[in-house]
């Protein structure tokens, strides 16, 4: 939907109808008592209509309920002073025209043209999202025209049309708002779908990388075992444990790993230590430089540790990024002789120079 085209069309329709009703009222086919009053009234109605078409508002009190106002692509909310001016004009115009043409000619065609002109003005007020002001103006127009023309005369000389124009304008603006909200929702869904597709693509690529890494780590060992007919030596079992641990690390805690950490873990396992890596999301949001520093400290801690069991766990603490713990027993449970031999907390941010 081209909102600029919609706005242009509304402006053109408003200008054309304003000119038509003004000309109709000024084209007298009978005597008038105060022509100057009629001319002034018609000019005021036309001027207020043009103000309603072109006046700009800095604020938009109905912006939350009027999507067309976003970005200036649709009719913005009419300034309050312009809406009040339209209400006053709608209330005074029937009386001013009736006095100008004289009571004997209030039902002449040229004397009732103001109904269409004021109806057009209030339609513009409705389009500019002053719903309450537009209906107040219609109420005053009904009262004034009925007072001078009578109920039957007022409704037979265009009052029904004026009410219909304002009603249709309200329906159209509600439909445009609904269409605009649907468009925004569709754009959001398209963005969400694109993000989901991108995430799936990254996940598939990551899976391929993991599979390739698994083949690189375990492939040679599996090929050797198959070639030996399943005869596994103690050395092969040790290599299998290292390969299994490496694959487990890649799945459990990829954020904790780089080449230095991988080498340190492999060396520790070959020394007989059981190394467990656990990433619980504590490294999210850390910069690449800080992450490189943290990984370097992890590699150093593992290289220096000679414990039977080494546990590296990311932390959600606001100051501690990773905790490295070394225990004397390699089992999963605690034993009476199981003691903590190493406890190192790696800070989330590097200490300032000169800090102790």
What does this entry show, briefly?
Keywords: Membrane, Transmembrane, Transmembrane helix. The chain has 356 residues and is α+β, with helices and mostly antiparallel strands.
Structure commentary:
The protein has 2 domains: 3-188, no CATH class; 257-347, no CATH class. The protein has 8 helices and 4 strands, in the order αααααααβαβββ. It has helices spanning 3-26, 35-54, 80-101, 113-127, 131-227, 234-252, 259-270, 288-304; strands spanning 274-278, 309-314, 320-327, 340-347. Strand 1, helix 8 and strand 2 (309-314) form a beta-alpha-beta unit. The longest helix has 97 residues, at 131-227. It starts with a helix and ends in a 9-residue tail after the last strand. 31% of the residues are buried.
Structural key phrases:
356 residues, alpha+beta, 2 domains, four-stranded mixed sheet, 8 helices, 63% helix, membrane, transmembrane helix, transmembrane
Low-pLDDT windows of residues: 59-74
Task: Indicate the percent of residues in helices.
Answer: 55-70%
Instruction: Give the amount of beta strand, in percent.
Output: 5-15%
Number of helices: 8
The number of distinct β-strands equals 4
Rg is: 41 Å
């Amino acid at each position: 939907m081209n909102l600029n085209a919609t706005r242009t069309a509304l402006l053109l329709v408003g200008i054309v109808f304003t000119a038509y009703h003004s000309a109709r009222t000024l084209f007298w086919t009978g005597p008038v008592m105060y022509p100057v009053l009629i001319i002034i009234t018609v000019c005021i109605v036309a001027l207020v209509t043009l103000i309603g078409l072109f006046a700009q508002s800095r604020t938009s009190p109905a912006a939350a309920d009027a999507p067309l106002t976003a970005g200036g692509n649709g009719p913005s909310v009419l300034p309050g002073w312009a809406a009040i001016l339209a209400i006053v004009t709608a209330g005074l115009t029937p009386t001013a025209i009736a006095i100008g043409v004289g009571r004997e000619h209030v039902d002449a065609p040229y004397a009732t043209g103001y109904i269409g002109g004021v109806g057009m003005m209030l339609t513009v007020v409705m389009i500019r999202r002053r719903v309450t002001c537009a209906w107040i103006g219609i109420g005053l127009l009904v009262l004034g025209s009925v007072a001078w023309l009578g109920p039957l005369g007022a409704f037979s000389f265009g009052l029904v049309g004026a009410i219909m124009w304002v009603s249709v304008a309200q329906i159209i603006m509600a439909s445009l708002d609904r269409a605009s909200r649907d468009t925004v929702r569709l754009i959001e869904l398209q963005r969400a779908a694109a993000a989901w597709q991108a995430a799936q693509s990254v996940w598939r690529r990551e899976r391929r990388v993991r599979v390739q890494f698994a083949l690189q780590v375990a492939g040679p060992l599996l090929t050797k075992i198959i070639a030996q007919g399943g005869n596994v030596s103690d050395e092969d079992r040790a290599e299998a444990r290292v390969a299994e641990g490496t694959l487990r690390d890649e799945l459990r805690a990829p954020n904790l790993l780089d080449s230095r950490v991988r080498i340190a873990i492999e060396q520790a396992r070959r020394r007989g230590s059981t190394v467990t890596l656990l990433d619980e999301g504590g490294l999210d949001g850390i910069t690449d430089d800080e992450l490189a520093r943290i990984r370097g400290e992890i590699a150093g801690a593992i290289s220096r540790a000679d414990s039977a069991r080494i546990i590296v766990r990311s932390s959600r603490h606001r100051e501690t990024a990773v905790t490295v713990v070394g225990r004397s027993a390699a089992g999963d449970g605690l034993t009476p002789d199981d003691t903590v031999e190493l406890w190192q907390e790696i800070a989330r941010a590097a200490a300032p120079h000169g800090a102790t």
